């Protein structure tokens, strides 16, 4: 009656080999992502040698970081990142609401694809390309002066914290739209109709209904922007003024200087910040809800 | 629904705002493209259209070499990461620990490239040393150079980078697929592979191809992880960045940046166009179906 | 097939003839973590039988069906198909095929390719496959639909294609998972009869899952009531409708008035059940001990509305009640009365029969029934 199992069945079916294959991506992630990141904590307490590091336990790197001038700049960069998150939210989230509510279902994904377009341009290009735009003699200033709106070029939008913020917002706005869109997909459409039925005004609808329900997605998007703003070295490197740093720049500079424990210490601090934020978010919002539209 | 009762004007304004935002985001890249065609480069008073800078790129041996490496990385990453994403999506559907699985596969999104790159760099160096020490202990050189910084390490970094995106795209594609189809195929006598290949794959094909295109673009654009992990060879982005950091933005770097943008725009543009065409044909089918079918 | 009294232990089912056993399930159970989807179930289905698993949603009937098909692995127990233990085999290795509720046709294949999929997997020569496909399409009444695509078909047509796709494989057992649930009522009635005729023509064993009683009774040779993960009772449609053993069956199948109470006394001829507001006698031999909890049920169409005064007809048991209202339902009229303990009972009359003059709301009446029409349920 039953025929003997075929080769593929034996490999990918209910055999141990099949089960192993199913777990391969997970194993890969654990081996090359989770473990290295976990080890940053270990390496951050190693001692620095001239070209490498040697195992030991010392808090020198942390002390070095927390007592140096870098710390102040680092904290400033956190502030700038936070500002970028807020601006991105104000600019981008209404679009997600608008698309979800007013745009017919079929076209919704096309609009999201539109925002995929700037995301598809390389992150470095997006940052570098801001220089000819924001420079003293760049596009913005040329246009403003030609139109007679200003008589002097604006110098405060590049090589300043403002420049970094502009760069962050431009780089990550699409993510806020995506995260907002995902968050809004978790909202059943009839919610809006109920609100209108009940006579709730626009603002009340927004504050009492949309925000709480979409909170997990908004939070995830915000964490994403915040962490990446802190982590991408190019942002302060290209757009910030002298001495502008963020965690990513400190880490890569440390690596170039062959101070590996310091780089690992900065990474560990970043990881801790990230985990802390995610934990807080989970306690507040139950972040697992974000994926309900997909699952 | 509520579109009928809302104000047409505010609707148009909101659309205008959305498009304006997209345009603003694209502005810097478009400006770069604009400059790349100028014979005199950036900031010059005159504007003479030329393809010269592009010609320079394609004759520069260093650049072409870097382009080759980038292409190799892109192809290999795609070949590995898309099946990974597929397996991960299937694993997610069958496992009971759904939240943990998703958390693991999406977490690289929240770790900035510089941080991950640094951690992986140290990780690989350590692995290299461990393997070399092991080799020495064995008294030979079998395990030398396995984990040196090079193609493999860059590949690993890119796979970690791209996997969350591929995972999401494939999950979304599979969300529309009904599992009864696989069961029906199994009930007809198909084994697990046949059921996947004959029935499931044709229906998720589009999503898989999108994932492939996505990955190619992502690898092409990626800079920081690759540059930290690649060791000796040059990639397109690393050449571009080192040029821009050292010499400022030269004319050829404008052309190079534009090139990268074209690829991205071409791929996304064609996806938009293709989905437009498909929704048209689907709508036509739906209209035909809506006509009364013969009595059963 | 002789009718035997439905005396059976809980969770098992009596075979009413000595035919070939197509499906046998022994001690089958399925748990999802702490949730018990199916408790230990024992069942035998004869070859060539049209067997229905009837029960409320979420009760375990679909779980049982999918265990038969190999789509789920049992937590305990065995599944035997024609004597072979298939418990560990995947669906493609079992002599079963399946018809699903919906969305199971391959949308990228035409009707002919859908039906021929299983044959293609067997590497059947094209000519032979073509003949078989044509024969199957004729059997389900879809000749000429070869080139249609699934989205061009109506719901009923899609189910027929599924049927053809499963039957063309000539397996021993056909499983049907609520195949008519997605169709509207009129279509369901027509397709019910068609399914029965096709099964009679083809002659293989059908196992059909549904929550719809009328559907079950139309097609079934025998049926089993599955609820809360347990096999409550099994038998022919007539057995289950006219002589249910379990209280659950009485409550689930048909419309019955059910009275719960305690056994006041038990003799050879019958049992006296104390309802709290009255005592009724039930004529049924049963091993009931005084003090045990029991229930009595009577089909609502066998109840009669009697005047409050006067002698009841001979052989009738009666209870006092208060008349509430009557509901006209076309074929039947339901007279709703309330009992002294507050519960409401419906007495059904075929429209046209029954009392010519209806009482006033709140008026005292009596409901009565022939003593032998009542069933006693000890569990």
Task: Tell me about this structure.
Chain A is about 75% helix and about 0% strand. With about 300 residues, chain A is mainly alpha-helical. In chain A, strands 1-2 form a two-stranded antiparallel sheet. The relative contact order of chain A is 0.13. Helices cover about 75% and strands about 0% of the residues of chain B. Chain B starts with 7 loop residues before the first helix and ends in a 6-residue tail after the last helix. With about 375 residues, chain C is of the alpha+beta class. Chain C has two domains: about 20-95 and about 170-240, Rossmann fold; about 255-375, RNA polymerase II/Efflux pump adaptor protein, barrel-sandwich hybrid domain (OB fold (Dihydrolipoamide Acetyltransferase, E2P)). Chain C is elongated, with a radius of gyration of 24 Å. Chains in contact: A-B, A-C, B-C.
In short:
Chain B has 296 residues and is mainly alpha-helical.
Helix and strand arrangement:
The complex is a heterotrimer of chains A (295), B (296) and C (379).
Chain A (H helix, E strand, L loop, with lengths): L6 H6 L3 H7 L1 H20 L3 E2 L4 E2 L5 H8 L1 H34 L2 H16 L2 H6 L1 H5 L4 H8 L14 H25 L4 H9 L3 H30 L2 H6 L7 H10 L3 H26 L10
Chain B lengths: L7 H29 L15 H8 L1 H34 L3 H9 L6 H26 L12 H25 L3 H9 L4 H30 L2 H6 L6 H12 L3 H40 L6
Helix pairs in contact in B: 1-11, 2-11, 3-6, 3-8, 3-10, 6-8, 7-8, 8-11
Chain C lengths: L20 E12 L2 E12 L3 E5 L6 H9 L6 E6 L2 E2 L10 E4 L11 H11 L4 H14 L15 H13 L5 E5 L7 H18 L2 E6 L2 H7 L2 E6 L2 E6 L1 H6 L4 H6 L3 E11 L4 E4 L4 E4 L10 E7 L4 E4 L8 E13 L3 E7 L5 E7 L13 E7 L4 E3 L2
Parallel strand pairs in C: 3-8, 3-9, 6-7, 7-8
Antiparallel strand pairs in C: 1-2, 1-4, 4-5, 9-10, 11-12, 11-14, 12-13, 14-20, 15-19, 16-17, 16-19, 17-18
Helix pairs in contact in C: 2-3, 2-4, 3-4
